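Researcher: Good morning. I'm working through a list of sequences from a screen, and I'd like to move beyond sequence-only analysis. For each chain I'm collecting a predicted structure so we can compare shapes side by side. This is the next one on the list. No need for commentary yet; just the structure.
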Amino acid sequence: MILQALNRYYDRLVEAGKLERPGWSPVKVSYALQIDEEGNLIRVIPLLHEEERGKKKVLVPQVLNVPAQEKRAVGIVSNFLCDNASYFLGIDGKGKPERTLKCFQTCKELHERLLGPSNAAPAQAVIRFFQKWNPQIAEDHEGLKPYLEALKAGANLVFEYRNYYIQDYPEIQDLWNTAYAVPSEGEQLPCLVTGSYGAVARLHPSIKGVMGGQSSGTSLVSFNASAFESFGRDGGQGYNAPVSEKAAFAYTAALNYMIAADKHHLRLSDTTIVFWAEHGEDAYAESFMGMMGEANGISEEELFTALEELAAGRKTELNQIVLNPDEHFYILGLAPNAARLSVRFFLQDTFGAFAEHLMDHHERLNIVKPSYDTRVHLGFWQLLTETVNQKSRDKTPSPLLSGSLVRSVLMGQPYPRLLLDQVEIRIRAEREITRGRAAIIKAYLLKLIKIGKLKAECEEALRMELNENATYQPYLLGRLFSVLEDLQISSMKKDNPTRKITATIRDRYFNSACSTPAVVFPQLIKLAQAHLKKVGGGLERQYNKQIGDILAKIGESYPNRMNLYDQGIFQIGYYHQTQARYTKKEEE
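Model: Good morning. C-alpha cells for this chain:
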C-alpha cells in the first residue's frame, strides 16, 4: 500500500512538472569541473550558496537534476556525469589509493561506453578528460588546490562545458534516456507494486534526508542476510520482494522530493513525517502542517476556521485554494534504523476525517491558561516536551511515544498510556502542574469517558475552567489543596508582604495528598487553623467560607487511596482552583 501510494504520487509530480521523468533525480552538487573541447581541466567552479540555518548562515550545495544515481553498498559502482572526487578525479581522503584508482577506472569505462557512440562535442570533451587525467599527480593541479580538502571529503561534482552542465545538453540527455530505457539483464518478474512484468531492482535507490539516518541515504526495502531471504533466493536481496526498477525509482523519487520540501514533511522526536494528497495539491500538505502545530505562514484563526469547516464535511478555502474534505490523504512516519528505515505508522483517510480527529483533539485539550501563556493551541511538540525534564541535558521525548501519540490522535483512538504515565512522573518529580500537563490529563480522561472506559460522573470535573458545582470527590480534594496552599501563602506574607515564598505545602504534601488523602488532609486541615488565626479579619472569614463550602461537598471521610485516574482529576481540580485565584487577584 505504501509503495503503491507513493508511485501514484510520483506520477502526479511528473505531470505537474515538479519531478523529472524516470532516469533523472535531484542531487546536491558542490562543485563543477570546467573542461575545454580537448578535455583539459580549466578550473573548479563552486556551486555553494548561503542559506540561513537558525541564527547562522551556512554554505550549502545546489540541487541539480542529474542522471539517476546508483545504489552503493560496499562495491565500486560509478554514477554517470555526477559523482565524487574518488570517481571523477581518483583522489579522496580515505587512505586507500588502490581502491580509489579502481573507482576512477570504473568511472572512465562507464563514460567511454555511454558517450563513445556520440560525436557531440560535449561527449567527446568528457571522454578526452578521462583519457588525459592522471590521478597520481591530480593533487598538484593548480585548479584543484584551493578546494582539495572539500573534494577529498566526498563533495559531488559535475562537468561544465561552454557555460552549460554536460547533463543539460539535449544530445547527452538523449544518450542517457536511451541507455536507461534498455531493459536490465536481470530476471523478469511481476512487480508487487504495478503488477507488470519487468526487471527487478536488486537494490532500491537511497532515501536521503531522514533525521538520524545515514548521510549517504537509507533503504525502505532491503534484505542483507540469508535469515531474511526466501527459499531459493539466497543472496537475491531485492528479488525476495520483487519491485521493478521503474517502480523503485518512482517511490524513492517521490519520498526524496517530500523530504526535501519543507511543506511536505515535519520532524517529531526521531520520526520524520511525510504527507501528501492523492491529487497532489500542495495546499493540503501546508494546511496539515499548520494543524500539526508547525508555523507555516497561515494564521491560527484562518487555520482553525478551515479545520471546523472540513470537520463538518464542508469545502473551505485556504490561501485561495479550495480544500475538499473528501480528498484522500496519506501520512507516513519514518524513523532511522541503522542503514534502513522503520515505518512508525502509515495512515490514510479523507482529509476531512483527519481534520475532524484533530479538531476533537484540540477541543479536549482546551483548558484555562495563565495570563503569560500566549499560545492559542498546543501542538504535538509542545505536548511531548511536558513529558521530559527540561533541566536535563537530553530533552528529547520518547521516540515511541511521539509516534504513538500522532497515530492515536489522527486515527481518533485513545491516547497512549505512556503519555499519561510520563506526565504523572514529571508532576511527582517537580510538583508542578503546567497548562500543558493539565491539558494532557484532561484530554486523556475525556477520551476514556467517550469510549466507556471511565465513569461518566468524572466529566463534570473535566471542564475548561473551574466548576464550582462539581461534586466528584477527587476534584474537590484538588480544589481544597489549592485553597489551603493559598491560605498558607497569605499567612506567611502577613508579617512581611515582600517576603519571597520558596516552599509551600505543595512541596511537602502534594504527592501524598494525591495518592493517600486520608493520611494527609486531616493534618493539613489542622495546620490551616493556625494559618487562619494568623491572617485574621476579612481574609479569615473568606478562607473559612471557601474551605467550609468544599468540605461540605467532600463529606466526613477522605479516600484512603486514589487510582491514577482519580489522581489526575485531583490535579485538574488543583489547577482549576489555582488559575481561578490568580485570575481573581489580577482582576482586583
